[in-house]
Design goal:
The protein is α+β, with helices and mostly antiparallel strands. The protein has 4 domains: about 160 residues, Penicillin-binding protein 2a (Domain 2) (Alpha-Beta Complex); about 350 residues, Beta-lactamase (3-Layer(aba) Sandwich), CATH 3.40.710; about 55 residues, Trypsin Inhibitor V, Chain A (2-Layer Sandwich); about 55 residues, Trypsin Inhibitor V, Chain A (2-Layer Sandwich), CATH 3.30.10. The chain is built from 20 helices and 31 strands. A hairpin with a 6-residue loop joins strand 9 and strand 10. Helix 9 packs antiparallel against helix 18, helix 13 crosses helix 17 and helix 14 crosses helix 15. The longest helix is centred in the N-terminal third of the chain and has 32 residues. The chain starts with 8 loop residues before the first helix and ends in a 10-residue tail after the last strand. This is Penicillin-binding transpeptidase domain-containing protein. It is found in: Membrane.
Length: about 725
């Protein structure tokens, strides 16, 4: 038998007391929790319960307007009805689907599938026409409702379409500025809420709530609608005339970096963008990388002037080719241009001269430094999606043929750039040597017009000294007056520019017959207002020169634009030629490049000059003497036509005498004859080999020994 210890009455009472205290504490805790939930958190849980019963219908905000720099509307939003369904309220999905399909022109099966979805609400169709919306209202179908939704409209159709971009059915930006600035343009979505039961049915007399949408911000672009329209008009004409794959034009204010026009043809209508292939929608001026050809010579030439490795009056000899870096660079003119100054080499667009300057006088390291300073090989940071960087080789990264590669880059081959980079490089020259950051948006405003952000001009860096920029601008002016850019001249506006006829590389490597004609320039040269580039890609006509096709397109656009901006024309007094030793007034030879033989002969005849013809073509590709030269009245000017007889390349020259001359003078003399100087010593020439009068191949070295003055060494052959 087990005995349990006896419990005293005091112990019993103590246990009861502890049990009572525990029960009271638990009750107090439950009461406190209940008070907290029912009183303190009452509002919170009421809202949660209400939100469980409130089923929202989203309301899109009005997408922000896009304006040009003058306030003209380029993209707007208008209200259009959209039809939606509450599946739980649709009693007959099949019958409802058939009735909606007859009005909307949709597949009844697709609509029925949406009506049977287990969702609170589903969209059936957006952007209804007024007649469709009214027909649906008349049907009074259970569970079917209409709500207004904004629809994007581009009132000018194709104008600046690649810049503006497109939007999707959910009010979202998909391409272009619509995509880049989507966060500003989209606005904040609103909603309509109605209290519904567990089955999704609206509770009669239940809570309903309307949260208005906040409209998107307005963009004010740097684009000018008038300049853009005229650029697209002229591009269309040029592309059709030349049967090019496409054409583009970019114009920029050089002092601010504002893009005034960014045109492309063929274009597309963003109101119906699905009707066009995707490649037409691409803004090639920003996203495409192209080999620039001779327009890149503005970079090579201005960099060489800035580095002090060439002067405007330096002499070069072009026999039609140059052997450099283990390869051969040929001049576009068979037989070459012979002896010419650096200014004339720019006018002539002479490839061998720019190959020598790029690869030898500048050299890969210095050339690369200047090219990067101009903005090549990296994005410029424009406010537009998908900006390409281009392709610029790094010195030392080319395993074989690096010197030849940089020789080719000197005249714009073997390097890829975007049209935007190219026009900004010219803008750097026009802006006194300072590269500005390009931009497309001037201001961002609220829907009621308050300015939120304003884009200020931003200088990226100084590339050239003001003196160098001014000097090279004068040389670009000479290209138009005396060189290949004559068809870009606008009376009274003093155009400066550079032509380009670039070979298009094959996808498999090397170059074929396809070309791109271009013209890069600005005006007026003494106070530039607009810098622009025209590119016509893969022309199908002959001849395919930039000076023949791109230059007049540039002229047509720029003349309209400068007149529209009220830039005053300045009448230039014609240069007065000097008199010869006998007091006879000399005659200035007019520039007749890229004119027809008949036009050239007429122009020369009016100046009192005679005409000689070489070749059987239609257009003048070279003239001797060059435009701007002073000659006697009645002098015969030789016109070389495009289907000209190819002269034999100058393969040999006589070594000139150089004894007694300085190193710099000897270098200039030998360069004029196409010979290479090998220097021994310093001072003045005392010995040369081969001796004067010896016939040697072009490109041969001439060893010259130099001694300081007073050394007692006699000059000897």
């Amino acid at each position: 038998m087990v005995r349990y210890p006896a419990i005293s009455p005091t112990g019993v009472r103590r246990r009861i007391a502890w049990l009572l205290l525990g029960t009271l504490a638990a009750g107090a805790a439950l009461t406190a929790r209940l008070f907290y939930l029912q009183v303190v958190r009452h509002g919170h849980f009421t809202r949660l319960a209400l939100e469980q019963r409130l089923r929202p219908l989203p309301l899109d905000a009005q997408r922000g307007t896009i304006l040009d720099r003058s306030g003209n509307k380029l993209a707007i939003s208008v209200s259009a009805d959209a039809v939606y369904a509450v599946p739980s309220e649709v009693g007959d999905p099949a019958g409802t689907a058939r009735k909606l399909a007859s009005v909307l022109g949709m597949d009844a099966g697709e609509i029925e599938q949406r009506l049977r979805m287990r969702q609170a609400t589903v969209w059936i169709a957006r952007n209804l026409g007024p007649e469709q919306a009214q027909a649906i209202r008349t049907l009074r179908l259970p569970g079917i409702g209409l709500v207004e939704r904004p629809q994007r409209v581009y009132p000018n159709g194709t104008l600046a379409a690649q810049v503006l971009g497109i939007t999707g059915i959910d009010n979202q930006g998909l391409e272009g500025l619509e995509f880049y600035y989507d966060a500003h343009l989209r606005g904040v979505q609103g909603r309509v809420e109605a209290e519904r039961d567990a089955a999704g049915r609206e509770i009669p007399g239940g809570v309903s709530r309307y949260v208005p949408a906040e409209d998107g911000h307005t963009l004010v672009l740097t684009i000018d609608q008038v300049i853009q329209y005229r650029a697209e008009r002229e591009l269309e004409r040029a592309v059709k005339e030349t049967q090019s794959d496409f054409g583009l034009f970019v114009a920029v204010d050089p002092s601010t970096g504002e893009i005034l026009a960014m045109a492309q043809y063929p274009g597309f209508d963003p109101n119906h963008y699905s009707d066009y292939p995707p490649e037409v929608r691409r803004n090639r001026a920003v996203t495409d990388q192209l080999e620039p050809g001779s327009t890149f010579k503005v970079v090579t030439g201005s960099a060489a002037l800035e580095a002090g490795v060439v002067r405007p009056d330096d002499r070069f000899f072009d026999p039609g080719f140059v052997l450099i870096g283990g390869g051969k660079v040929s001049c576009w003119l068979p037989g070459g241009h012979g002896s010419q100054s650096f200014v004339e080499a720019v006018e002539n667009s002479c490839n061998p001269v720019f190959a020598i300057i790029g690869a030898q006088r500048l050299g890969p390291a210095l050339f690369y430094k200047f090219a990067r300073a101009f903005g090549f090989g990296e994005p410029l940071g424009i406010d537009f999606p998908g900006e390409a960087a281009g392709s610029l080789p790094v010195p030392g990264s080319i395993a074989h043929g690096e010197i030849l590669r940089w020789a080719n880059i000197g005249f714009g081959q073997g390097v890829s750039v975007t049209p935007l980079q190219l026009v900004m490089a010219a803008a750097t020259i026009a802006n006194g040597g300072v590269l500005m950051k390009p931009h497309l948006v001037r201001e961002i405003r609220t829907a009621d017009g308050q300015v939120l952000e304003r884009t200020s001009p931003m200088a990226l860096r100084r590339v050239l000294s003001p003196a160098t920029a001014q000097e090279f601008a004068r040389m670009m002016r000479s290209v138009v007056v005396n060189g290949s850019g004559t068809r870009a001249e606008i009376p009274g506006y003093r155009v400066a520019g550079k032509t380009g006829t670039a070979q298009i590389p094959r996808p498999t490597g090397g170059y074929g017959d396809d070309t791109m004609a271009s013209f890069l320039g600005f005006a007026p040269v003494d106070a530039p207002r607009i810098v622009g580039v025209v590119m016509l890609y893969r022309l199908k006509v002959q001849p395919r020169w930039g000076g023949l096709w791109a230059a007049p397109t540039f002229k047509a656009i720029m003349e309209d634009a400068l007149g529209y901006l009220r830039v005053p024309r300045r009448e230039e007094k014609p240069k007065q030629p000097s008199k010869d030793a006998n007091g006879v007034q000399m005659v200035l030879v007019p520039n007749v490049l890229y004119l027809t033989a008949e036009e050239a002969a007429q122009k020369l005849g009016a100046a009192g000059l005679k005409t000689g013809i070489e070749g059987t073509g239609r257009l003048v590709v070279d003239q001797i003497p060059r435009g701007g030269a002073e000659v006697d009245p009645g002098t015969r000017v030789l016109l070389v036509l495009d289907q000209h007889v190819h002269p034999v390349e100058r393969s040999e020259v006589e070594v000139p005498p150089v004894l007694g001359k300085s190193v710099r003078d000897v270098a200039a003399i030998l360069a004029e004859y196409g010979l290479i100087l090998h220097v021994d010593g310093s001072g003045f020439a005392t010995f040369q080999s081969p001796s004067p009068g010896t016939r040697v191949p072009v490109g041969s070295p001439v060893e010259v020994r130099f001694e300081p003055p007073g050394s007692g060494k006699e000059a000897s052959p």
